[in-house]
Design goal:
525 residues, TIM Barrel, 8-stranded parallel beta sheet, 41% helix
């Protein structure tokens, strides 16, 4: 009601000034006209649904757009501070905004990137360029032991929990996913009523707190899991081993944040502080992990089950591969989360220094599965800094089959990187549980933006592959991605990195891979 009170007060002041002009002195018009103009602007701000920040901050919110017009210096200083993790550059952020709004993303005067900078990456086109196919590609999740496979889109909504995001934000993401036919990862906060309202496909993430399927003492409850995973809206289950922004850490949800809705979704008492341990209690070794994968697949009625991790020790991931081979059990997918990932709950030291970046993590997982002969049974997802068609293509070249985006999806629903996620005072209603702030996020409008962003990004990825002269994403190869290594030299990924041959680890592993394979023990991490 505060925002309405402000606008009403402006109207009252304007009308008082207008009355004074009519009865006392025409000089009052000098005050009445601008005040009434502000009142009209404020009323429009409250009623429009396009801009979250204007709905929460009528009149004052226009200052942000004024700054945005004075670019790049003012905007970069005041607006582009990262919410968390490694920030997107302005060009990428604006690309997401424009695609989400359905406007053209081509701008004149060429790229703003320094193509001569060390680390700059590019892909090679072909004179045999083709037209992108009309059909939308998908990836089948479901190995030999999966009875109910799921065809996942190339780009999906990455893990973000209800609690971290507002109910309106979750609804907008899920409604967009429902319309576009792509998946929405629940995050570890389980499935809320906001996830269910629009019926979009869900990947249910199970973390160490076992939210939504936990016993009173915080352990895994197979009966609750079986009942909830039977819902047809749940298409796959992802076991979270670690996440990019804080690998090796659990979490604490203060009791003051455990509202009735969060209590309902997570299965925890209202108002009671909830602790997520750093490690799972349902398993403690690679053997037990793959056994847990098999257990969840049975309990869910044969749905795809995989796990998500930020890669740390290569030896530990190879130990999981050994357990897969010895048990004859494989996950249907592995989602690799890069250490670039952002979260409002991650300590800065962890965000900056712990965990493997996505590029190295993807190649590690891909090579490990190829080298053990398991790659054809396990699909790989890439989660971290995916915001454009080029990002999708690069991640597939680096070893992924599909991708997931978090922060880009937040941009699509109105995030402006205000750095207020942890305060519950998000100015655009995305990362808050304050209903007065959350209502600024209009679900129908923002779900349309999520749909448009995902569709346009996948279309861009398809056209890039066609421009490379390829029939499809399966034809991508590491030799097609180049990186500048110094001022005059570029190298392809095929030249820069080792790429294992199928079953190489079982027969004749090379160099450090041989040493790490020997050190890997399926009985312990």
């Amino acid at each position: 009601m505060v925002r309405w009170s402000i606008v009403v007060s402006v109207w009252v002041l304007g009308l008082v000034a207008a009355a004074a002009a009519a009865t006392a002195s025409w000089g009052w018009l000098v005050a009445a006209v601008p005040i009434l103009a502000l009142a009209v602007v404020g009323t429009w701000d409250l009623l429009q649904r396009r801009h979250n920040i204007l709905r929460n901050y009528p009149i004052l919110g226009h200052a942000r757009f004024l700054l945005e017009g004075i670019r790049p210096e003012i905007q970069q200083y005041f607006i582009e501070s990262p919410t968390d993790g490694t920030p997107f550059d302005r060009e990428t952020r604006d690309l997401v905004y424009e695609r989400a709004k359905g406007t053209l993303d081509e701008e004149p005067f060429g790229t703003e990137r320094d193509v001569h900078a060390i680390g700059y990456e590019f892909m090679t086109h072909s004179l045999r360029t083709r037209t992108a196919p009309a059909e939308t590609p998908s990836v089948r999740l479901g190995g030999p032991n999966c009875g109910r496979p799921y065809d996942i889109a190339l780009l999906n909504v990455s893990a973000m929990s209800f609690g971290s995001l507002s109910g309106n934000a979750i609804e907008a993401l899920n409604a967009g996913a429902a319309r576009g036919g792509f998946a929405h990862d629940t995050g570890e906060g389980s499935i809320s009523r906001h996830h269910r309202k629009h019926g979009g496909d869900l990947i249910w993430e199970i973390a160490s707190g076992y939210f939504g399927c936990r016993t009173p003492d915080g352990r895994f409850d197979p009966d609750q899991f079986a009942a909830k995973s039977a819902d047809d809206q749940v298409k796959a289950i992802s076991i979270k081993l670690s996440q990019g922004a804080k690998p090796g850490l659990g979490g604490v949800l203060p009791g003051t944040k455990v509202t009735a809705e969060i209590s309902e979704a997570r299965g925890v008492p209202i108002g009671q502080t909830v602790i997520s341990p750093p490690a799972h209690t349902a398993f403690g070794t690679p053997y037990e992990l793959v056994d847990f994968v098999a257990q969840l697949r049975v309990l869910s009625g044969g749905k795809p089950v995989g796990f998500k991790l930020c890669v740390g020790s290569r030896v530990e991931f190879l130990a999981i591969c050994k357990a897969m081979l010895e048990r004859g059990i494989t996950p249907d997918f592995v989602i690799v989360d890069g250490s670039e990932g952002g979260t409002g709950a991650g300590p800065v030291e962890f965000e900056d220094h712990m965990g493997m970046p996505l590029t190295e993590g993807l190649m590690t997982v891909h090579n490990a599965l190829v080298g053990t002969g398991l790659r054809d049974r396990v699909k790989i997802g890439a989660s971290g800094k995916v915001a454009s068609g080029a990002d999708v293509v690069k991640r597939i070249i680096q070893g992924a089959d599909f991708t997931l985006a978090a922060r880009a999806m937040m941009f699509a629903i109105g995030c402006i990187q205000a750095q207020q996620c942890h305060t519950n005072r998000c100015p655009v209603g995305v990362a808050t549980q304050d209903p007065r702030r959350a209502r600024a996020l209009d679900v129908p409008d923002k779900s349309e933006r999520v749909y448009r962003f995902q569709k346009a990004t996948v279309a861009s990825a398809k056209q890039m592959v066609a421009s490379m002269g390829l029939d499809g994403f399966d034809d991508l190869h590491p030799s097609m991605l180049h990186r500048r290594v110094d001022g005059v030299t570029t190298r392809t990924y095929a030249e820069l990195y080792d790429w294992l041959e199928p079953k190489e680890l079982l027969d004749h592993a090379r160099g450090s891979w041989r040493r790490d394979w020997a050190a890997a023990d399926a009985a312990r991490f």
